[in-house]
Amino acid sequence: MSTTLLKKETLERKWYVIDAAGKPLGRTAVIAANILRGKHKVDFTPNVDCGDYVIVINTDKAVLTGKKLDQKSYYRVSGWIGGLKETKARDMMNTRSDYAVELAVKGMLPKNTLGKHAMGRLFLYKGAEHPHVAQKPEAWTLD
pLDDT (tens digit, 9 = 90+) per residue, 72-87? Predict the structure, then answer.
């Protein structure tokens, strides 16, 4: 039995739109990460960057289930002593919901150059409008 390995030169990338309105943030991030990685393709190869482009719209309408709005925190460090900054999930979703989705997707991708290139193919928008109409993206339904 032979194994077919994908070559980067024969790769065709598609564009997909994911609507996050009313959907759990984590579920949306999993679907986006799998498409960015290329795991939905039949000829997926782990060491080749074979993923597609993903547009996530309505990130401000994504929901966090359970008590995550009050209990989940996002941390960043300025590098100075005592420079740990904490942001609650409720504040993050109100002000920078696209960044919250970006952090969720980034955590699900590999921590190497494949993940870095995949993040370059992710586009996040708070509203329902996006400027990528010319690429004719297909709608991806969350299963």
Answer: 999 999 999 999 999 9
Distance from chain centroid for Cα 9: 25
In the numeric block, the tokens 């980034």 are attached to 106
Q: Are 79 and 73 in contact (CB under 8 A)?
A: no
Query: Which ranges of the chain does DSSP label H, i.e. alpha helix?
Result: 25-37, 68-71, 89-95, 97-107, 113-119
Number of structural domains found in the chain: 1
Q: How far apart are the first and last CA of the chain?
A: 32
Residue 82 lies in a domain: no
Is 51 domain-assigned? yes
What pTM value is reported for the model? Answer: 0.91
Amino acid at 51: G
| DSSP3 helix / strand / coil % (the chain, rounded to 5) | 35, 20, 45
Does residue 121 belong to any structural domain of this protein? yes
